[in-house]
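Subject: design request, 174 residues
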């Protein structure tokens, strides 16, 4: 990455995309192959069975949550909604580790594909608007102006540091 591209990425801030993994398209392709003998077989009129793989394809392609410095962009199959960080009262966690955005008027909006394990990432992207309940990140980690990791070595060091800390706390017999 040259200097010009790096300057653009710093100006945009951090961004996180939470979506269904691309390997889901393999399952959709397999479903299409399995439906083909039935849909094109001797019994006529079953071509409508292709609606299922097409519907799943659209679902996987659209279903996502994008977090940026400005806020959250929630995209479902039939809609899209922008949620600026200032409009959020907080986040709610459901019984199945799913996350919902709670607006100032106490309306809850489900965040597709966001789970509780993603909360530290949301804290980084929001630059401290969303607090990290796990305690893995300090205030200096969350603020964009204070940490500017531009080299792969510093990213590797930062990724290794939490693992060393967690490992030293959980070793039995010490």
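Subject: RE: design request

Done. Sequence follows.
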């Amino acid at each position: 990455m040259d200097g010009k591209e790096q300057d653009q990425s710093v100006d945009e801030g951090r961004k996180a995309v939470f979506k269904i993994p691309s390997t889901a398209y393999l399952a959709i392709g397999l479903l299409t192959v399995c439906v083909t003998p039935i849909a094109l077989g001797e019994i006529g009129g079953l071509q409508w069975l292709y609606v299922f793989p097409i519907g799943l394809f659209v679902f996987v392609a659209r279903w996502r949550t994008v977090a940026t410095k400005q806020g959250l962009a929630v995209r479902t199959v039939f809609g899209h909604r922008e949620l600026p960080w200032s409009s959020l009262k907080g986040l709610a966690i459901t019984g199945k580790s799913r996350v919902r955005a709670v607006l100032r008027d106490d309306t809850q909006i489900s965040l597709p594909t966001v789970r509780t394990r993603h909360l530290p990432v949301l804290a980084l992207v929001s630059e401290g608007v969303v607090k990290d309940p796990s305690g893995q990140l300090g205030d200096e980690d969350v603020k964009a102006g204070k940490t500017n990791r531009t080299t792969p070595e510093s990213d590797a060091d930062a990724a290794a540091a939490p693992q060393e800390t967690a490992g030293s706390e959980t070793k039995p017999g010490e």
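The radius of gyration is 21 Å.
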